[in-house]
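Structure request: Transmembrane protein, Prunus armeniaca.
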Amino acid sequence: MVDFSFILDVVVVVVVVVVATAAAVEVVVVVVVAAAAAVEVAFAFACFTFR
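Returned structure:
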């Protein structure tokens, strides 16, 4: 007899880990994009100020 509750627990854990990893990757991407935008704004401001 296969223990389906154990299989279900494993599936739930795997899904949670995958979702958490995806969320972490999304946060990292957002931070990188925000940093790039901030650098771009700072560069444009510097060019405008010190031209």
